[in-house]
Amino acid sequence: xxxxxxxxxxxxxxxxxxxxxxxxxxxxxxxxxxxxxxxxxxxxxxxxxxxxxxxxxxxxxxxxxxxxxxxxxxxxxxxxxxxxxxxxxxxxxxxxxxxxxxxxxxxxxxxxxxxxxxxxxxxxxxxxxxxxxxxxxxxxxxxxxxxxxxxxxxxxxxxxxxxxxxxxxxxxxxxxxxxxxxxxxxxxxxxxxxxxxxxxxxxxxxxxxxxxxxxxxxxxxxxxxxxxxxxxxxxxxxxxxxxxxxxxxxxxxxxxxxxxxxxxxxxxxxxxxxxxxxxxxxxxxxxxxxxxx
Length: 293
Fold this sequence. Notes:
Structural class: alpha+beta
Low-confidence stretches: none
Strand content: 5-15%
Order of helices and strands: EEEEEHHHHEEHHHHHHHHH
Number of strands: 7
Shape: globular
Mean pLDDT: 80
Number of helices: 13
Number of domains: 2
Helix content: 40-55%
């Protein structure tokens, strides 16, 4: 774990005004560089990890848990870097504590749920997966940022250009060259579960592409998919000039897209048929697939 000796000061937030998710409370803050963060020790308690630091010097219990082989395979490389490099913050009372970016929290929960679906967790870790499912039912990545802003009071003075900067973080100003972001194995699993015949060039039913949109793109922050549709509209014959993922930024947009893809693929592999998959998907993401399939 690589961390800085200096801490980042909090500009909004208070221990008396935590983020509330059901019965769970987590201290949340907006930093001087405008990052929204959650206190690591509270996140650990929220998902059922023991209090305190890791048994490994220089690591938090959360980073040690997430780096284990049972969980790490379901985390994007960007998220693994974030968790191995926690943020040292200085709370309003001067106490220094560790924190993680708020947007990382639902991704961690989703990784734990995916690992549980595929039987990767030990029996004593299933409680953690249960806690993560409860948390996921009320969270989406863009939602938690809004909740932190409300809890800290930051939404009252948030700059008007904030939404546009979020879109800029996810979407490239120009189109990247063609690259294959959805692996063939994803479509193989999708076709198997939905009972479609797969070929080496899986054009398949028209619904295959629509399912990628429903299952993956709709789980990106809410403004992203409408903006992608605006930048990359379909023609009169429902064809688009580019693949949507060609418009995503490398560091944030494409990494988040890939992490969502991994999560859905894990649910597909754990399912024997369409009905079972849709049930797992609804439990994991808290929403139904909105199309007649």
